[in-house]
User: Fold this.
Amino acid sequence: MSENDVLVSIKNLGVSFYSEDGIAKAVQDVSFSISKGKTFALVGESGCGKSVTALSIMKLIPFPPGEIVSGSIYFKDKNLLELSPKRMRTIRGNKIAMIFQEPMTSLNPVYSIGDQIAEAIMLHQHKTDEQAWADSVGVLKQVGISDPERRVYEYPHQLSGGMRQRVMIAMAISCRPELLIADEPTTALDVTIQMQILDLLDELQEQNDMSILLITHDLGIVAERAHKVAVMYASRIVEIAGCRALFDEALHPYTQGLLKSLPRLGVNKKRLDTIPGSVPEPLHFPEGCKFHPRCPLGNKDNRCRSVEPDLREVKPGRFAACWRVQGYQTEKERLEYGTKFGK
Assistant:
Protein backbone atom coordinates (compact mmCIF):
# COMPACT_ATOMS: atom_id res chain seq x y z
CA MET A 1 0.00 0.00 0.00
CA SER A 2 1.53 3.30 -1.10
CA GLU A 3 1.29 6.57 0.81
CA ASN A 4 -1.07 7.92 -1.87
CA ASP A 5 -3.57 5.17 -1.01
CA VAL A 6 -3.68 6.05 2.71
CA LEU A 7 -6.47 8.36 3.86
CA VAL A 8 -5.95 8.16 7.63
CA SER A 9 -2.80 7.15 9.49
CA ILE A 10 -2.79 6.73 13.27
CA LYS A 11 0.53 6.29 15.04
CA ASN A 12 1.21 5.55 18.72
CA LEU A 13 -2.11 6.98 19.88
CA GLY A 14 -2.58 7.20 23.65
CA VAL A 15 -5.71 8.34 25.49
CA SER A 16 -6.08 8.56 29.27
CA PHE A 17 -8.90 9.43 31.64
CA TYR A 18 -8.17 10.98 35.02
CA SER A 19 -10.18 10.18 38.15
CA GLU A 20 -9.80 10.19 41.91
CA ASP A 21 -8.90 6.50 41.75
CA GLY A 22 -6.04 7.03 39.30
CA ILE A 23 -5.25 7.26 35.59
CA ALA A 24 -7.18 4.96 33.29
CA LYS A 25 -5.17 4.34 30.11
CA ALA A 26 -8.05 3.60 27.76
CA VAL A 27 -5.92 3.56 24.57
CA GLN A 28 -2.20 2.78 24.46
CA ASP A 29 0.23 2.87 21.55
CA VAL A 30 -2.43 2.25 18.89
CA SER A 31 -1.28 2.42 15.26
CA PHE A 32 -3.07 1.58 12.01
CA SER A 33 -3.96 3.14 8.65
CA ILE A 34 -7.13 3.27 6.56
CA SER A 35 -6.97 3.13 2.76
CA LYS A 36 -9.06 5.25 0.44
CA GLY A 37 -12.35 3.65 -0.53
CA LYS A 38 -11.84 0.64 1.76
CA THR A 39 -13.48 -0.69 4.93
CA PHE A 40 -11.23 -1.08 7.96
CA ALA A 41 -12.76 -3.02 10.86
CA LEU A 42 -11.81 -2.48 14.49
CA VAL A 43 -13.07 -5.42 16.56
CA GLY A 44 -12.98 -6.61 20.15
CA GLU A 45 -15.10 -6.97 23.25
CA SER A 46 -16.76 -4.02 24.98
CA GLY A 47 -14.32 -1.98 27.02
CA CYS A 48 -11.29 -2.58 24.79
CA GLY A 49 -10.98 1.06 23.62
CA LYS A 50 -12.60 0.91 20.17
CA SER A 51 -15.03 3.81 20.63
CA VAL A 52 -12.40 5.93 22.41
CA THR A 53 -10.14 5.45 19.38
CA ALA A 54 -12.95 6.61 17.08
CA LEU A 55 -13.74 9.65 19.25
CA SER A 56 -10.04 10.54 19.17
CA ILE A 57 -10.14 10.75 15.37
CA MET A 58 -13.06 13.17 15.68
CA LYS A 59 -11.31 15.00 18.56
CA LEU A 60 -14.38 14.47 20.72
CA ILE A 61 -12.63 13.12 23.83
CA PRO A 62 -14.17 15.12 26.71
CA PHE A 63 -11.55 17.14 28.60
CA PRO A 64 -11.65 16.79 31.53
CA PRO A 65 -11.55 13.90 32.41
CA GLY A 66 -10.10 12.54 29.14
CA GLU A 67 -7.01 13.60 27.23
CA ILE A 68 -5.12 12.48 24.14
CA VAL A 69 -1.67 12.11 25.67
CA SER A 70 0.45 10.87 22.76
CA GLY A 71 0.64 10.00 19.08
CA SER A 72 -0.57 11.50 15.83
CA ILE A 73 -3.67 11.17 13.63
CA TYR A 74 -2.98 12.18 10.04
CA PHE A 75 -5.90 12.81 7.71
CA LYS A 76 -4.18 13.08 4.33
CA ASP A 77 -1.33 15.49 5.13
CA LYS A 78 -2.85 17.10 8.24
CA ASN A 79 -2.22 16.00 11.81
CA LEU A 80 -5.68 16.41 13.33
CA LEU A 81 -4.25 16.62 16.84
CA GLU A 82 -2.42 19.84 15.92
CA LEU A 83 -5.44 21.61 14.45
CA SER A 84 -7.25 24.39 16.31
CA PRO A 85 -10.87 23.77 17.41
CA LYS A 86 -12.09 26.12 14.68
CA ARG A 87 -10.11 24.31 11.97
CA MET A 88 -11.25 20.94 13.27
CA ARG A 89 -14.89 21.99 12.98
CA THR A 90 -14.43 22.45 9.23
CA ILE A 91 -13.40 18.77 8.99
CA ARG A 92 -15.65 17.13 11.59
CA GLY A 93 -19.02 16.33 10.04
CA ASN A 94 -17.75 17.46 6.65
CA LYS A 95 -14.68 15.42 5.61
CA ILE A 96 -14.95 12.96 8.52
CA ALA A 97 -18.36 11.91 9.83
CA MET A 98 -19.50 9.45 12.47
CA ILE A 99 -22.51 7.24 13.09
CA PHE A 100 -22.85 6.85 16.85
CA GLN A 101 -23.94 3.71 18.68
CA GLU A 102 -27.37 4.80 19.90
CA PRO A 103 -29.35 6.98 17.49
CA MET A 104 -32.05 7.92 20.00
CA THR A 105 -29.51 9.61 22.28
CA SER A 106 -27.57 11.12 19.36
CA LEU A 107 -30.57 12.86 17.76
CA ASN A 108 -31.95 15.99 19.39
CA PRO A 109 -35.54 15.21 20.51
CA VAL A 110 -36.76 18.82 20.22
CA TYR A 111 -35.76 19.42 16.59
CA SER A 112 -37.27 17.86 13.51
CA ILE A 113 -35.29 15.44 11.38
CA GLY A 114 -35.07 17.98 8.55
CA ASP A 115 -33.72 20.71 10.82
CA GLN A 116 -30.96 18.47 12.16
CA ILE A 117 -29.79 17.37 8.71
CA ALA A 118 -30.07 20.84 7.19
CA GLU A 119 -27.97 22.38 9.98
CA ALA A 120 -24.86 20.42 8.95
CA ILE A 121 -25.42 21.16 5.26
CA MET A 122 -25.75 24.92 5.86
CA LEU A 123 -22.71 24.95 8.14
CA HIS A 124 -20.31 23.05 5.88
CA GLN A 125 -21.72 23.52 2.38
CA HIS A 126 -22.75 27.18 2.87
CA LYS A 127 -26.18 26.68 1.31
CA THR A 128 -29.40 28.61 1.91
CA ASP A 129 -32.24 27.29 4.08
CA GLU A 130 -34.22 26.26 1.01
CA GLN A 131 -31.28 24.48 -0.61
CA ALA A 132 -30.33 22.70 2.62
CA TRP A 133 -33.94 21.59 3.17
CA ALA A 134 -34.12 20.21 -0.36
CA ASP A 135 -30.82 18.38 0.19
CA SER A 136 -32.20 16.94 3.44
CA VAL A 137 -35.14 15.46 1.56
CA GLY A 138 -32.76 14.09 -1.08
CA VAL A 139 -30.41 12.44 1.41
CA LEU A 140 -33.32 10.82 3.27
CA LYS A 141 -34.46 9.37 -0.03
CA GLN A 142 -30.90 8.20 -0.69
CA VAL A 143 -30.83 6.16 2.54
CA GLY A 144 -34.12 4.48 1.68
CA ILE A 145 -36.62 6.37 3.84
CA SER A 146 -40.04 6.36 2.24
CA ASP A 147 -42.00 9.58 1.83
CA PRO A 148 -39.02 11.81 2.77
CA GLU A 149 -41.00 15.01 2.09
CA ARG A 150 -43.14 14.14 5.14
CA ARG A 151 -40.44 12.57 7.28
CA VAL A 152 -38.33 15.74 7.38
CA TYR A 153 -41.05 17.33 9.55
CA GLU A 154 -41.15 14.45 12.05
CA TYR A 155 -39.25 14.13 15.32
CA PRO A 156 -36.98 11.26 16.48
CA HIS A 157 -39.58 9.76 18.83
CA GLN A 158 -41.95 9.29 15.88
CA LEU A 159 -39.53 6.95 14.08
CA SER A 160 -38.60 3.31 14.62
CA GLY A 161 -35.08 2.24 15.61
CA GLY A 162 -34.20 1.30 12.05
CA MET A 163 -35.54 4.61 10.71
CA ARG A 164 -33.55 6.58 13.30
CA GLN A 165 -30.41 4.71 12.31
CA ARG A 166 -31.04 5.62 8.68
CA VAL A 167 -31.48 9.26 9.72
CA MET A 168 -28.12 9.10 11.50
CA ILE A 169 -26.54 7.76 8.31
CA ALA A 170 -28.27 10.49 6.30
CA MET A 171 -26.82 13.15 8.61
CA ALA A 172 -23.36 11.57 8.36
CA ILE A 173 -23.29 11.41 4.55
CA SER A 174 -25.09 14.70 3.89
CA CYS A 175 -21.77 16.44 3.19
CA ARG A 176 -20.23 13.47 1.32
CA PRO A 177 -17.43 12.69 3.81
CA GLU A 178 -14.24 10.96 2.74
CA LEU A 179 -14.20 8.91 5.96
CA LEU A 180 -17.27 7.51 7.70
CA ILE A 181 -16.80 6.12 11.20
CA ALA A 182 -19.56 3.58 11.93
CA ASP A 183 -19.52 2.78 15.65
CA GLU A 184 -21.67 -0.34 16.14
CA PRO A 185 -24.08 0.84 13.42
CA THR A 186 -26.45 -2.11 13.88
CA THR A 187 -26.71 -2.18 17.68
CA ALA A 188 -30.22 -3.04 18.98
CA LEU A 189 -31.58 -3.63 15.47
CA ASP A 190 -33.16 -6.89 14.36
CA VAL A 191 -31.31 -9.05 11.84
CA THR A 192 -33.31 -7.94 8.81
CA ILE A 193 -32.77 -4.25 9.53
CA GLN A 194 -29.09 -4.92 10.28
CA MET A 195 -28.56 -6.33 6.81
CA GLN A 196 -30.41 -3.40 5.22
CA ILE A 197 -28.21 -0.89 7.06
CA LEU A 198 -24.99 -2.71 6.13
CA ASP A 199 -26.06 -3.06 2.49
CA LEU A 200 -26.82 0.65 2.50
CA LEU A 201 -23.34 1.47 3.78
CA ASP A 202 -21.83 -0.68 1.03
CA GLU A 203 -23.85 1.15 -1.62
CA LEU A 204 -22.90 4.57 -0.27
CA GLN A 205 -19.24 3.58 -0.12
CA GLU A 206 -19.28 2.53 -3.76
CA GLN A 207 -21.17 5.64 -4.89
CA ASN A 208 -18.98 8.12 -3.01
CA ASP A 209 -15.62 6.25 -2.97
CA MET A 210 -15.80 6.60 0.81
CA SER A 211 -13.57 4.95 3.40
CA ILE A 212 -15.28 3.32 6.37
CA LEU A 213 -13.96 2.61 9.85
CA LEU A 214 -16.31 -0.11 11.06
CA ILE A 215 -16.29 -0.63 14.83
CA THR A 216 -18.01 -3.80 15.98
CA HIS A 217 -17.78 -6.91 18.11
CA ASP A 218 -19.64 -8.96 15.49
CA LEU A 219 -17.08 -10.94 13.50
CA GLY A 220 -19.81 -12.22 11.19
CA ILE A 221 -20.30 -8.67 9.90
CA VAL A 222 -16.54 -8.20 9.59
CA ALA A 223 -16.13 -11.35 7.49
CA GLU A 224 -18.59 -10.05 4.88
CA ARG A 225 -17.74 -6.34 4.82
CA ALA A 226 -14.15 -5.53 5.79
CA HIS A 227 -11.01 -5.37 3.69
CA LYS A 228 -8.64 -5.17 6.65
CA VAL A 229 -9.09 -5.94 10.35
CA ALA A 230 -7.49 -4.81 13.59
CA VAL A 231 -8.26 -6.74 16.77
CA MET A 232 -8.18 -4.64 19.94
CA TYR A 233 -7.87 -5.88 23.50
CA ALA A 234 -7.54 -3.93 26.74
CA SER A 235 -6.43 -0.63 25.16
CA ARG A 236 -4.02 -2.09 22.56
CA ILE A 237 -4.06 -3.52 19.06
CA VAL A 238 -3.09 -7.19 19.32
CA GLU A 239 -3.43 -8.25 15.66
CA ILE A 240 -3.77 -6.65 12.22
CA ALA A 241 -4.35 -8.57 9.00
CA GLY A 242 -6.28 -8.67 5.77
CA CYS A 243 -9.81 -9.96 6.37
CA ARG A 244 -9.42 -13.26 4.53
CA ALA A 245 -6.00 -13.96 6.07
CA LEU A 246 -7.35 -13.32 9.57
CA PHE A 247 -10.25 -15.74 9.18
CA ASP A 248 -8.08 -18.35 7.47
CA GLU A 249 -5.38 -18.24 10.16
CA ALA A 250 -5.77 -16.14 13.27
CA LEU A 251 -2.39 -15.68 14.98
CA HIS A 252 -3.13 -14.12 18.36
CA PRO A 253 -4.78 -16.36 21.00
CA TYR A 254 -7.40 -13.68 21.65
CA THR A 255 -8.38 -13.55 17.97
CA GLN A 256 -8.51 -17.35 17.94
CA GLY A 257 -10.84 -17.28 20.94
CA LEU A 258 -13.16 -14.77 19.27
CA LEU A 259 -13.38 -16.90 16.13
CA LYS A 260 -14.03 -20.09 18.10
CA SER A 261 -16.98 -18.42 19.81
CA LEU A 262 -18.78 -17.90 16.48
CA PRO A 263 -21.66 -20.29 15.67
CA ARG A 264 -21.05 -22.38 12.56
CA LEU A 265 -23.49 -24.03 10.19
CA GLY A 266 -23.34 -27.81 10.31
CA VAL A 267 -21.51 -27.90 13.65
CA ASN A 268 -23.70 -29.44 16.33
CA LYS A 269 -22.64 -28.13 19.73
CA LYS A 270 -24.74 -27.73 22.83
CA ARG A 271 -22.66 -24.74 23.92
CA LEU A 272 -20.41 -22.34 22.03
CA ASP A 273 -16.77 -21.97 23.02
CA THR A 274 -16.08 -19.00 25.29
CA ILE A 275 -13.07 -17.04 26.47
CA PRO A 276 -12.87 -17.35 30.27
CA GLY A 277 -12.89 -14.20 32.37
CA SER A 278 -13.53 -10.66 31.17
CA VAL A 279 -11.68 -7.61 29.83
CA PRO A 280 -9.70 -6.01 32.69
CA GLU A 281 -10.55 -2.50 33.79
CA PRO A 282 -8.12 0.23 32.64
CA LEU A 283 -7.30 1.07 36.27
CA HIS A 284 -6.30 -2.54 36.98
CA PHE A 285 -4.50 -3.88 33.94
CA PRO A 286 -2.32 -6.93 34.70
CA GLU A 287 1.44 -6.85 34.23
CA GLY A 288 2.93 -8.30 31.07
CA CYS A 289 0.60 -9.25 28.24
CA LYS A 290 -2.85 -7.99 29.21
CA PHE A 291 -4.48 -11.12 27.82
CA HIS A 292 -2.34 -13.61 29.74
CA PRO A 293 -4.82 -14.21 32.63
CA ARG A 294 -7.37 -15.43 30.07
CA CYS A 295 -4.93 -17.00 27.61
CA PRO A 296 -4.67 -20.82 27.41
CA LEU A 297 -0.91 -20.43 26.81
CA GLY A 298 0.03 -17.25 28.68
CA ASN A 299 0.26 -18.65 32.22
CA LYS A 300 2.84 -21.19 31.09
CA ASP A 301 5.40 -18.56 30.11
CA ASN A 302 7.08 -16.13 32.53
CA ARG A 303 7.67 -13.74 29.65
CA CYS A 304 3.91 -13.40 29.02
CA ARG A 305 3.29 -12.59 32.69
CA SER A 306 6.11 -10.05 32.97
CA VAL A 307 6.79 -8.26 29.67
CA GLU A 308 4.16 -6.80 27.35
CA PRO A 309 4.89 -7.63 23.67
CA ASP A 310 4.92 -4.91 21.03
CA LEU A 311 2.87 -5.19 17.84
CA ARG A 312 5.28 -6.56 15.22
CA GLU A 313 5.12 -7.81 11.67
CA VAL A 314 5.43 -11.58 11.96
CA LYS A 315 4.49 -12.44 8.35
CA PRO A 316 4.17 -10.22 5.27
CA GLY A 317 1.22 -7.94 6.01
CA ARG A 318 0.48 -9.72 9.33
CA PHE A 319 1.05 -8.02 12.67
CA ALA A 320 0.64 -9.58 16.12
CA ALA A 321 1.48 -8.70 19.71
CA CYS A 322 2.14 -12.13 21.19
CA TRP A 323 5.37 -13.67 22.45
CA ARG A 324 4.30 -17.14 21.30
CA VAL A 325 3.76 -15.88 17.76
CA GLN A 326 6.81 -13.62 17.60
CA GLY A 327 9.30 -16.00 19.20
CA TYR A 328 12.73 -14.43 19.59
CA GLN A 329 13.18 -11.77 16.95
CA THR A 330 16.91 -11.33 17.55
CA GLU A 331 19.76 -13.10 19.30
CA LYS A 332 19.95 -10.18 21.71
CA GLU A 333 16.34 -10.73 22.78
CA ARG A 334 16.98 -14.43 23.29
CA LEU A 335 19.94 -13.70 25.56
CA GLU A 336 18.08 -10.98 27.47
CA TYR A 337 15.13 -13.27 28.01
CA GLY A 338 17.35 -16.10 29.21
CA THR A 339 19.21 -13.80 31.63
CA LYS A 340 16.04 -12.32 33.08
CA PHE A 341 14.05 -15.51 33.53
CA GLY A 342 16.75 -18.15 33.76
CA LYS A 343 15.83 -19.89 30.50
